[in-house]
Amino acid sequence: MSKRMLALAFAAGLLGGAASRFLTPAVTRADSWPREVRAQRFVLIDDQGTVLGTFAAEADGKMVRLLDSRGREIWSAGGSIAVPSAMLGK
Questions:
Q1: What is the DSSP letter of 89?
Q2: What are the φ/ψ torsions at residue 5 (nearest 5 degrees)?
Q3: 84 phi, psi to nearest 5 deg
Q4: Residues contacting 69, CB < 8 A, separation 6+
């Protein structure tokens, strides 16, 4: 590699690095994020928009639900707990 080619590559690198400093968007600092996020439901989707999971208070009481690509439930957690009335003193 000639000295001229090496000097041009070095100059292009410096110019590109300097230009990238001014062309990139501003960085968001962690202290500017909201302290709290509220929602009735969070939904996890894939690239095609297929729902793969939910985190929500639903009518059947389930809180976390994971689904396969066809929408069938493969795992869930939460839900209402059936407590025998004898334990409630009734």
A1: T
A2: -65, -40
A3: -60, 140
A4: 46, 50, 52
Enter the tokens of residue 16. Answer: 């590109």
Residue 19: per-residue pLDDT:
81
Q: Report H helices in the chain.
A: 3-23
Q: Could you tell me which of 74, 35, 78, 72 has the C-alpha nearest to residue 56?
A: 78
Render 30-49 in DSSP notation, one character per residue.
GGGS-S----SEEEEE-TT-
Biggest distance spanned by C-alpha atoms of the chain? 93
Whether the full predicted model's pTM is greater than 0.85, yes or no, is no
10-residue mean pLDDT series, the chain (90 residues): 85 85 70 76 90 84 85 84 55
- Alpha-carbon distance values, 72 to 40, 66, 75, 79, 84 (Å): 22, 8, 9, 17, 30
Cα gap 11→3, rounded to integer Å: 12
